[in-house]
What does this fold into?
Amino acid sequence: VPVETIAWQGGHAGHVRLIEQTLLPLRHEVLEVKSVPAMVDAIKRLAVRGAPAIGVAAAFGVVLGAQGRTGRTAREVLDSALAAADELARSRPTAVNLFWALERMRAAGRRAAERGPDGDAVFAALFDESAAIHREDREICRRIGQFGAELLRDGQTVLTHCNAGGLATADYGTALAPIYVASEQKKRIAVYADETRPLLQGARLTAWELLQAGIECTLITDGMAGRVMFEGKIDAVFVGADRIARNGDVCNKIGTYSVAVLARENGVPFYCCAPLSTFDPTLADGSQIPIEERAPEEVTEGFGRRTAPPGVRVYNPAFDVTPARLVSGIVTEVGVIEAPTTAKVEAALRAGGRSA
Amino acid sequence: VPVETIAWQGGHAGHVRLIEQTLLPLRHEVLEVKSVPAMVDAIKRLAVRGAPAIGVAAAFGVVLGAQGRTGRTAREVLDSALAAADELARSRPTAVNLFWALERMRAAGRRAAERGPDGDAVFAALFDESAAIHREDREICRRIGQFGAELLRDGQTVLTHCNAGGLATADYGTALAPIYVASEQKKRIAVYADETRPLLQGARLTAWELLQAGIECTLITDGMAGRVMFEGKIDAVFVGADRIARNGDVCNKIGTYSVAVLARENGVPFYCCAPLSTFDPTLADGSQIPIEERAPEEVTEGFGRRTAPPGVRVYNPAFDVTPARLVSGIVTEVGVIEAPTTAKVEAALRAGGRSA
It folds into this structure.
């Protein structure tokens, strides 16, 4: 494991430990999260971020909301869990893993409540479901890494945007998983990391975790991605995703669309790495994905001091949508969906046991 | 005049006043430059930047180098001027206006020295040539603005990268000149400004001077340029240039190539605005333009505090090259070179009295 991004500490009365990612790379501190409001705050502030990690965090958050004295009724525990899920659902709008994990938790709670009146059994079911979501995320990252590593040859160089590494998941990450697995296979892989304004997840998080893992990483500003591709330095692009529509349109961190267009222009394959839980089969295409807009200060004061004139307007969408036609393949835990189409996405979802 | 970027203060014994651009937008201070080393330092630090302004600064710098007691010989004054020109030529490698202005100053000094032994006459010729370069830059900006304004209709929105405004020239700027002229013509033009990492010339300078001029400006990070084009918000892109090859390949601030590729992908016209002095007819294409690489700290500590892990590698090219095929037109003081080719560029240079 490159880093332990998020974990449950203790038993049923335990709590969540997660890396306080806003302080990286200069400080590596652990945040102890013991309540639903604290988890909502951690997600909103991006103390924990990355679609898969947000899903795990939300599942753990439901468990925190369902904690209480023993001997409650099933209804009491279920109601606490459902209220927590509603609160967590309002934390961030774009990453669909959040809603997917909450729905799994709601369903697990309801099934347990239907089985009998024992609140402790409902809590145990919720606890076990959150642990399963966490464990599955780790397994899924490994499988994505294995499928993705087959796309990489010794000596190649990958460009990535934002952070879809271990810090974005419970384990190896999505976009970085193929690099970690390829490295384990003794392939030498170098990485160019877009710094990823406004919040610099590339500079702060991707560069940090790659250095920790001993993988060569060169940091560039977002405007340099085109230049390094133009110079022939890049063999493939790997990025993560926050939501993928049924046709393969990929919603990911703002700037991903630019990277995809530049990759196509320069003949560089563009791969998106994501678990099936990142797909939203209810959306026919990416135009319907809600794009979170964040505070203007992320752009004008993103580094602790003001860098733009007072009074300037700011547009700060946190995500963009890359049309499926620009995506060479989507690397999932059931394999690579090459040149994605609605039919191929639906087939992959069925292969993964998800109804399309 | 939106702002007085650079000016000569006083007569033959005077000095240069320029806006200390590294302090904008939070502080608007004037730097008094009284020696060649001080001017070299101002150019290297980007206290004065933008290809046309660098040309004017270099010309004034030669005058500073040629200053001295009266009664010197022509040879003495010329040697001082030539030594100053050599020193100034080492300040920055990419913007060709620097070398063009220095060559004009050298030629003016040599012509005067050939006319007779009077050093004061040589100095006067140098002084007059620098004043002419400064005055012509202003006239050229206006003409670029007039030709460029014809490309803009009332209610349109322009995206620009870096700062090719008044702060990059002695007057209206190059890329922003069409916007200023169109505004004078009562067209309402709005601007999206790329912040332009690493040094944030868009956030610090373009946003500042557009707000000063009362023009609506929305600041975005560089990775958002593709998204706003994808959303249909942009009618045209206007950028400046640091050097243009004979075939129309445009070297400009890093990130410009990305904007050009994204504009083409989204059917948005991409215009480069530059005086003929920015053309380098000695270069057949852009592959031969020297690209300045700057310090890694601009990327890792660009905002006064470290934002990347210690030990990370950094690639920091200050410029990139946009192939001519992506350029809809180059707006010059002799008109718009549409879909530039070597033949069209050579014709424009001849029209402007420059040998191609």
Summary: The first strand of chain B starts at residue 6 and ends at 9. Chain B has eleven helices and 15 strands. Chain B has a mean pLDDT of 96. Chain B touches chain A through 57 residues (CB under 8 Å).
